[in-house]
Amino acid sequence: MPGPDSYEAAGELLRALSAPLRIRIVTELAGGPRCVHELVEMLGAPQPLVSQHLRVLRGAGVVRGARRGREIAYTLIDEHVAHIVADAVSHVGEDR
């Protein structure tokens, strides 16, 4: 049986995924590394907003950034998160 710390960590993860834009970011990163400007273009969201959401995801241990010249490419730390998001999106789509 998981300990109390596991439930706390799961709650933190779910809070980090609670914003629709962060769910979309995770979905895009499931396809591979992306720089902020690529995410901005794909999502049609302003750069400061995308950067803010990436900070939240990075703080929650969902994504990490690796420098590519002058840019930072973001990737998912754990592919399980992509599956959680895909399952959640699929689940709500079944009910509609």
Total number of β-strand segments? Answer: 3
Adjacency order of strands in the biggest sheet: 1-3-2
Largest sheet: 3 strands, antiparallel
Order of helices and strands: HHEHHEEH
Determine Rg (CA atoms, Å): 14 Å
Quaternary status: single chain
Which word captures the global form?
globular
Short recap of the structure:
This protein has 96 residues and is α+β, with helices and mostly antiparallel strands. The protein has helices at residues 4-16, 20-29, 36-43, 47-59, 79-94, and strands spanning 34-35, 63-68, 71-76.
What does this structure look like?
By secondary structure, this protein is α+β, with helices and mostly antiparallel strands. Helix content is 62%, strand content 15%. The protein has 5 helices and 3 strands, in the order ααβααββα. The protein starts with a helix and ends with a helix. The mean pLDDT is 92.
Per-chain topology:
Blueprint: H1 4-16, H2 20-29, E1 34-35, H3 36-43, H4 47-59, E2 63-68, E3 71-76, H5 79-94
Helix pairs in contact: 2-5
Protein traits:
5 helices, three-stranded antiparallel beta sheet, single chain, alpha+beta
